[in-house]
Amino acid sequence: MKRFLLALLALPTMVFAEDTLNSGDTAWMMVSTAFVLLMTPAGLALFYGGMTRSKNVLNTYAMVFMAFVIAFVVWIVAGYSIAFGTAESATVQTVMGGFGNVFLNGITWKDLAPTVPGHYPAYVFVVFQGTFAAITVAIASGSVIERIKFSTWLVFVAVWVLVVYAPIVHMVWGGGYLFDAGALDFAGGTVVHMNGGLAGLVLAILVGKRAGYPKTAMKPASVILTALGAALLWFGWYGFNGGSAFGANAIAGLAYLTTTIAASIATITWVLLEWFVYKKPTLLGAATGAIAGLVAITPAAGFVDVSGAFAIGIIGAVFAFYGVTMLKKKFGHDDSLDAFGVHFLAGLWGALATGFFALKDNALLWDGPLKESGDRMGQILVQLESIVVVGLFTLIGTVIVYYIAVALTGGRRVEDDEEQMGLDESIHGERGFNL
């Protein structure tokens, strides 16, 4: 996704004589940013809220909503600097940027974004990236709803964005180790979906299972809300993937097409799998399949053609279906809303599939073995390396951040009576539904 000039990353943000602000690119990036913003406090919140039990709908929504605002503030304070700043040490630079842009120090309203093309304001780029940080950590909430302490969650969000998310952004998109290795991630297969999905699984294991799981029936409060959330997420994904072309250009158009294809064919695939295995095609399955397809195409959206989008969407749905229906049952982990099964597994497939299906077109590729020498196997190995590095960093970092959050808040999960009552009333003194 992040097609940066390394020379720009090594220098303060500047405006070259031939680089002037383009109103079309600026408008597109501002609209894309608004699309991505809609995905978290509206799309993901409804998607998750509808899947949880009615006594926890409000708490689930609040966890996503607060994740967005806290993550964005933390992003402005130091996250952006860690992700896209320049460290004084070359060794440190491979993993994280420096602190020269804390509170956006050194960036003014007149500067242009450090991207290719960069014909829109740097501040728009900052906000665009901030919305990515917010949805990544919010994804993880789906694994631990209905039992994690609200205060523990809020502290976790703030620390995790700085300790885990920002360094991964730097390594993949900001001129760090994986960027230099030539890893391709158009809009966040490793950075967002693998990262958030694996963090969710780690939290689910550390916090423990919900009371009564898996024997007690835990039916969704409203599949209709979940389907509406999926539709809003799909809508926002056009900013997520299309905006990652960084301009109103042909690559954005390609991302629009591949995104729609993958989401549509993944939905069909999931429904057919459900119909074959369980004899019932469900709306919840259709909504989940669409998200799986969107996740899978995210790292490849601007690199592949129609056939690649079809293959990525179909297999991404199969990966996620297996994770949600079989892998979860086999290992017994209580990933409440299947953040790991959908986001991590479909994201992992998408990241690897980028190496298989990326076009040998240097106008699309920004770096890597496939562009430099046409070496597809070399590109696949680089993609695999990025999966392993991001996976290990997320795993270790999330465990550390979890224990920091627990130490600062004095506990990991709510009291038994609060869980029994439901977190809407016991934590917030409100009800999601007053029926």
What is the compact description of this entry?
It is built from 17 helices and no strands.
What would the keywords be for this entry?
17 helices; 67% helix; mainly alpha; single chain; Ammonium transporter fold; disordered N terminus; 435 residues
SSE map:
Blueprint: H1 6-9, H2 23-51, H3 57-84, H4 90-93, H5 122-141, H6 150-172, H7 177-181, H8 189-207, H9 223-242, H10 250-278, H11 283-297, H12 306-331, H13 339-357, H14 369-373, H15 376-409, H16 416-421, H17 423-428
Helix pairs in contact: 2-3, 2-5, 2-9, 3-5, 3-6, 5-6, 5-8, 6-8, 6-15, 8-13, 8-15, 9-10, 9-11, 10-11, 10-12, 11-12, 11-13, 12-13, 13-15
How many individual domains? Answer: 1
The major β-sheet equals:
none
Helix percentage range? 55-70%
What amount of the residues lies in strands?
Answer: under 5%
Mean pLDDT: 94
Number of strands: 0
How would you portray this structure in words?
By secondary structure, the protein is mainly alpha-helical. It has a single domain, classed as Orthogonal Bundle (Ammonium transporter fold). Helices cover 67% and strands 0% of the residues. The chain has 17 helices and no strands. Helix 9 runs parallel beside helix 11 and helix 10 runs antiparallel to helix 11. The longest helix has 34 residues. It is globular, with a radius of gyration of 21 Å.
